[in-house]
From TrEMBL, chains A, B:
Homodimer. It is found in: Cytoplasm. HAMAP family: Rex. NAD(+) binds at G90, V91, G92, N93, L94, G95. InterPro entries: CoA-bd (IPR003781), NAD(P)-bd_dom_sf (IPR036291), Rex_bacilli-type (IPR058203), Rex_DNA-bd_C_dom (IPR009718), Tscrpt_rep_Rex (IPR022876), WH-like_DNA-bd_sf (IPR036388), WH_DNA-bd_sf (IPR036390). This is Redox-sensing transcriptional repressor Rex. SUPFAM superfamilies: NAD(P)-binding Rossmann-fold domains, Winged helix' DNA-binding domain. The keyword Repressor applies. Keywords: Cytoplasm, DNA-binding, NAD, Repressor, Transcription, Transcription regulation. Residues 79-180 form the CoA-binding domain.
Amino acid sequence: MTEQKIPKATAKRLPIYYRYLNILKDADKTRVSSTELSDAVKVDSATIRRDFSYFGALGKRGYGYDVESLLKFFKKILNQDKLTNAALIGVGNLGNALLNFNFHQNSNVRISAAFDVRPDLANTVQSGVPIYPMAELRKQLEDQQIKIVILTVPSSVAQDVTDEAIAGGVRGILNFTSLRLSVPKDVRVQNVDLTNELQTLIYFLDHYNDED
Amino acid sequence: MTEQKIPKATAKRLPIYYRYLNILKDADKTRVSSTELSDAVKVDSATIRRDFSYFGALGKRGYGYDVESLLKFFKKILNQDKLTNAALIGVGNLGNALLNFNFHQNSNVRISAAFDVRPDLANTVQSGVPIYPMAELRKQLEDQQIKIVILTVPSSVAQDVTDEAIAGGVRGILNFTSLRLSVPKDVRVQNVDLTNELQTLIYFLDHYNDED
DNA sequence: TTTTTATTGAAAATTATTTCACAAAATAGC
DNA sequence: GCTATTTTGTGAAATAATTTTCAATAAAAA
């Protein structure tokens, strides 16, 4: 939208590159080649060069890429130069773990509010995050201008909660439920389906010995 | 490997279909069309028909697919007719949540052993799963013939632990660390990178308004 | 300075995946 | 039994993603 559209496959790899560039910077490396990056992130070096080239000529022939400036560039692209607030809905088993999971450590995202149906949780603070009752979902999302939610509720209520969140202005959903959500086309859902991942792994193991 | 190779993209969708077929069966539905499935799982109906067709003609024209027999078929394909044991390595924040996460509810996978460095955890039982000290990793994996591990250790030790697990006979790794693991080509890694997912979501939000 | 080596950027080729569109087959209604 | 309707399965086309290849350029070595 902002620039010309980058392939989706490329977009999904940007955070991987970004993370490794941070590691390189912390190790005071000033330059890196596509081959070296390739080893670290397990993406073919030609694919890396192709990915980078969508953003212009970022490297220098015979030299490689300058870590610092590449990092600065990706930081901007990935919106990591500003803090993004997210809300977590459903402070159960997994939700609690995600409250403690330090998203803020390597991404400029912070969970600034959480919601749960359980009355004993409402109006407490868990892992430094205030928990609101479900009834306040829409209002708080609106008031706090939160555009991203992490959804860790039971599948049975996932669609209802989603509808409410979208009514509250949410634009992106990290969906840990097994339900495939119905959303307007300007709302984006990123599914993280743990059972699926495990089953896919088993399928590949059984059916693709060796090689991808 | 066992049959002719199915496209990877198709393979990744099989668990999604499988789950929804279970839901249909529980609701005593006997038939389903590709269009109806499409609505539920948010995959284009032509893609669904194409996916199914890799396994032969599973449907009937003018009728659709028989839920029961389709389910039976996918259960076999996905190895869900046998129980698969997995080990969890790293009983921290996220690891603990995954111990409680009921993989067994909708997939025939069970976490039958867990491992952690902390001495106070070793030789206890958490959420019904015995915790072993890290030193026993290789031996236990061998003894219990565990081929799949869920990796929830700090990134800093991820590669070492991986090497040890592979030495113990592991063939598949569900990797929750941010490290891209180096493994022999007959070992499969499925990455679940939460920070990445969140950053990708933000990127899509900022750069792809509307439409995929 | 000149030569060698390293490395990008991009065009072209290849491979993978999705979608269109419709004939063929089966069902459902009359 | 006939006709209208539904729905699959699949060639062909379109789109997306990866990989190969190599000229161009920068840095390092001679």
